[in-house]
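[Q] Does anyone have a clean structure-token version of this?
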Amino acid sequence: MPLTLQRAELQRHQNFIGGRWVAAAEGRQLPVSDPALDQVFAQVPDSGAVDAQAAVDAAQAAFPAWRATPAKQRAQLLKKWNDLIIAHQEDLGRLISREQGKPLAEGRGEVAYAASYVEWFAEEATRSYGDMIPAPVTGRRMMAVKEPVGVIAAITPWNFPAAMIARKIAPALAAGCTVVAKPAEDTPLTSLALARLAEEAGFPAGVLNIVVASRERAAEVVDVWLADSRVRKITFTGSTPVGKHLARESAGTLKKLSLELGGNAPFIVFEDADVDAAVAGLMAAKFRNGGQTCVSPNRVFVHSAVHELFVEKLAARVVALKVGPASAEDSQIGPMINARAVDKIARHVQDAVARGARVVVGGQRLTSLGSNYFAPTVLINADAEMACSCEETFGPVVPITRFDDEADVIAAANGTPFGLASYFYSRDIDRAWRVADALESGIVGINEGALAAEAAPFGGVKESGYGREGGRHGLDEYMHTKYLCQGNLR
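[A] Here you go.
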């Protein structure tokens, strides 16, 4: 049965601009599908340039009063928003699972994760301290103060429709910025529901604006924001090619940028690892959201001394995973987001097998469940030439490569343009620090598969982008530093 909401009005079907719920200016609509059933269940605006401009106008109009609002009052509104998100965890979790496909337990978990960022930045709003600088001469006072950047444009992905919007909007609002946001075309309903709860919390009109657009019209919306000098920052999570485009096009107005882009995360199991812990860590890191996460291990390297044992234990865990729709409470792996995603996964598996890999578990579409399902898969004998090693699979596929030498596996792990997350398992403390220092990524899991936390900085290096979300670093991304110098004091 389709997932339904206890509070049906949280499922919104309009843009939220200037404190009003409005249709797209041209009246176009975008269908939203349930990936479990591959059926349309809602319609939202398919917005264009006029709507994008209206959102910036509203955000700019609201900015002077919002930046002047004391941090404590901004924090209180964020706390009210957090309380409402938690109070509606079940409905929001159901909405996430309906439009994105992840199991309902994960949908509920994502709501709690999203709320943790709202709560964190509500607390950080009152802790944005400046500095007193020792003056080099008498009669002078020198200070550095932090100010909000201005209007922020947030562009979010489909895989975590609540967490990604919260991780960007909460620090922006805490810093005193106003926001225009475009959620992913596949999962707009969660963002609109969060905007409804923000409205209910009492945020002033224009402080938060949500504009929905299809894949075909997304550039039309975002190009308006890129060209408008009043938009002072772009924050984006998505593919590296799109991130590079945003960086190029924002140069004309020298916007500040936070880019969390593609990944190709290595997961290394050394010969001295706790194999059971490594298997558990890989299960947590790889199969969350069906492998559709930016920090999902994409290349698994296992030392020859423990290779057979690791594969045996992993295969037993993977074959036991329950695949099914979010409406089934026991589902652990849901459908992929759409047919394009399934096609890519199937192509990666076929390419690997053609190049000498062997399927241990899975390896096929699960058409009996629907068109968007793929079996959790374990491959062995993977190598660096396979598509699954060179590209981000974004699905429930574990390609395993055997290794023997620490230096060689570090070189292989770093042998990619990307550097978002890395993982390794070892009980040798010297090796732990040595390998952690050597891995080229913004995030490193040492004997740990679950990395993300609201108190920690999240972001990558190399072509995985720059800027950090979460932690105290996340608030700084939405502020700039102003130097004040007062002289001729007596």
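[Q] Thanks! Anything notable?
[A] The chain has a mean pLDDT of 97.
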